[in-house]
Amino acid sequence: MGRWSGSLRLYEEAAEHLAGGVSTAFRRGTHPAPVYAQRAQGARLIDVDGNEYIDYMMAYGPLIHGHAHPAIVEALTRQAPLGTTYGVQHQGEVELARRLTRYVPCADLVCFVNSGTEANLVALRVARAYTGRQKIIRFNGHYHGWADPLLVKPAAELQGLAPQAATGGQSAAAFHDLIVLPWNDPGALEQALAEQGDQVAAIIMEPVLCNNGCLMPLPGYLERVRELADAHGVVLIFDEVITGFRVALGGAQELFGVTPDLCVLGKAIAGGLPLSAVAGRREIMQLVADGTVSHMGTLNGNPLVTAAAIATIDLLAADGGAAYQRMNARTDALTEGLKELAAKHGVPLLIHRVGPVFHTLFTDRSAVSRYEEFAQCVDQAAYRRFSDELFRHGVLVRPSGLWYVSTAHEEADIEATLAAADRAFAAVK
Ligand code: PMP
């Protein structure tokens, strides 16, 4: 572990003061060493021991322009001396809200909070107030944040199972109003709505199941969900915390042409600063506007995060969306290269992708569209060995299999990554 001795020393020291030595449970499992960053620029991250990595974790999604993009740094540097939070309104909020209502199809009105979890809580509250109903339909294997009313343990098999706690200390009452269904299964949704539709306030889903396999909605599925939501007077919420601004300026709803009633945005929206938003139809968001639904938060929409978000979005919108073309071209080269290398080494690999985000599934299946199938047929242990090898060769990826390509990744980064992947596949086959 000589190469990571500085990180390991800090990790030990951290555990004396910081519960578990990390700031979010996801980071606890970093192999083969818990990396401590020293600095990062573009697609490269350098740890405290001086090891350099080509980064595809991208901080779990927010860094759509890579680390420390000059335009975002400039926006922050310009704003910081003018004040970091005011507790009163400022122009940045107006400018940012205007961009959201322009680019995001469902957005007539928006409101800001700080994290994806918080924004989902606001969306559920708005949906309940709008419909006067309590129940929420959510889907097995989808992630909407860590709060009690959003979190359930994913199940490898779903046979009318009652929702299970995902963490110690979770309120059992929070499950009371949840109906957990298999995703990409219109029949299951039809049946649940036929039985309990008059009690259901919202259907919430990731429009592409990015958190578990980057599973795509089956053709016609989103359209059918939209129809069923309308037929039963249920608010349809797309959790676009990953897909928002990442797969298109208007997110997955633009890409698939299906408009939800509300959507939740986070991660890429502010290029690495803590900002999230709920955006939706005027008639529904009106309940926030008129104070029927309380929406609060000390640091909501502060001028630092809005400055970063405006810079991030303007970079994405510039030159007719050249940023997306660039990210997609790099992702084409990377995913094609990975497929060729896997074939060369005889490793069964399936790649699911939406724009510049993709999941590498170690499976011999030719397609996976259900979470339950994903949970059963993917060799996570083999992928874990592969991602550990990549790490040893200077490529940082999430051990779950999800990769993010940013506008900062250069052709040379992709080539170097494929050279590392060649060695990593050889080591795990
Ligand atoms: N929804 C989705 C789809 C997510 O991927 C995440 C975070 N991974 C969240 C919500 C929660 O966002 P946050 O971590 O900012 O609370």
Could you walk me through the main structural features you see in this protein, from its secondary elements to its overall organization?
There is one protein chain. By secondary structure, this protein is an alpha/beta fold. It has two domains: 2-68 and 321-428, Aspartate Aminotransferase, domain 1; 70-319, Aspartate Aminotransferase, domain 2, CATH 3.40.640.10. Helix content is 38%, strand content 15%. It contains 13 helices and 14 strands. It has a seven-stranded mixed β-sheet with strand order 4-10-9-8-7-5-6, sandwiched between helices. The mean pLDDT is 95. 4'-deoxy-4'-aminopyridoxal-5'-phosphate binds at residues 60, 115-117, 120, 143-145, 206, 211, 239, 241-242, 266.
The number of domains: 2
> Mean pLDDT, as a whole number?
95
Number of strands: 14
- Attached small molecules: 4'-deoxy-4'-aminopyridoxal-5'-phosphate
Write down the CATH topology of the largest domain: Aspartate Aminotransferase, domain 2
Classification by helices and strands: alpha/beta
CA-atom Rg in angstroms: 21 Å
Which of globular, elongated, flat, extended, rod-shaped describes the shape? globular
Q: Which percent range describes the beta-strand content?
A: 5-15%
Order of helices and strands: HEEEHHEHEEHEHEHEEHHHEEHHEEH
CATH superfamily of the largest domain: Type I PLP-dependent aspartate aminotransferase-like (Major domain)
CATH architectural grouping of the largest domain: 3-Layer(aba) Sandwich
Largest sheet descriptor: 7 strands, mixed
Ends: how far apart?
24 Å
The total count of helices amounts to: 13
The helix fraction, in percent, is 25-40%
Regions with little confidence, pLDDT below 50 for 5+ residues = none
With strands numbered from the N-terminus, the spatial order across the biggest sheet is 4-10-9-8-7-5-6
CATH top level label of the largest domain: Alpha Beta
